[in-house]
Design brief:
The chain is α+β, with helices and mostly antiparallel strands and 215 residues long. Helices cover 31% and strands 29% of the residues. Strands 1, 2, 3, 4, 5, 6, 7, 8 and 9 form a nine-stranded antiparallel β-sheet that branches. Strand 6 and strand 7 form a beta hairpin.
Length: 215
């Protein structure tokens, strides 16, 4: 089982009152901590201007939730970490889908320029349907996704370990294509059984060195 955690960070205004030399020293120290990590896979994305109270995202993957927690603990105890604040946090795990035969065996970043993430929860009525009814409804949903092979999807299960039931994320190089996909999905019959599917986070991939420029 692979645990995934999307951690969104904001930066305290007091950081920008430090001298430039101290800011740079703290950033270099922070970078070293990130680069030496072995147990946790991570990717960084800029979110500045795309969602309030967040500057960047760290997408974390590990075999245990404790490894993710230990990693975050080390980050926030760096000098730069003292000036960071976790503004949003989403956690889920990989499980085999009930409705599709395709496996999510490789869950690392596929290389898309954009990552769009949102949690969602189904209605009570959805779970009152029989499994066969739900599976039949999901066929239409899956077929819409197959019309956009250039967009990759990752589905996480959050039942019992976070506020939502699922977290879905998409990687794409074209936000217009992704918007077309979402517009089609909105008209699918399964949509009637969605209780909530916000907030939506749009993130732009940046290397470690690049992300420090946003802090």
């Amino acid at each position: 089982m692979t645990y995934h955690s999307y951690q969104f960070f904001s930066v305290k205004s007091s950081f920008h009152k430090l001298t430039k030399s101290k800011q740079e020293r703290y950033k270099k120290e922070f970078l070293k901590v990130l680069q030496k990590e072995k147990k946790v896979i991570f990717y960084t994305y800029a979110t500045l201007g795309l969602k309030t109270n967040t500057i960047f995202l760290s997408w974390l993957q590990a075999d245990t939730i404790e490894e993710i927690q230990d990693y975050l603990n080390e980050l926030i105890h760096t000098n730069l970490g003292n000036y960071l604040k976790i503004s949003y946090s989403l956690t889920g795990v990989i499980r085999k889908s009930q409705y599709s035969t395709s496996e999510q065996s490789e869950t690392r970043r596929k290389g898309g320029a954009y990552l769009i993430i949102y949690p969602f929860t189904k209605t009570h009525e959805w779970y009152m349907l029989t499994f066969e009814q739900r599976k039949e409804l999901m066929k239409g949903h899956i077929n819409v996704g197959r019309k956009y092979p250039q967009i990759t999807q990752l589905l996480l299960y959050s039942y019992g370990i976070d506020d939502n039931e699922f977290i879905v994320s998409y990687e794409t190089d074209n936000l217009s294509d992704f918007q077309s996909l979402v517009m089609e999905l909105r008209s699918d019959a399964v949509r009637a059984y969605t209780l909530k599917d916000t907030p939506i986070f749009t993130c732009i991939y940046k290397s470690l060195g690049e992300i420090l420029k946003f802090i």
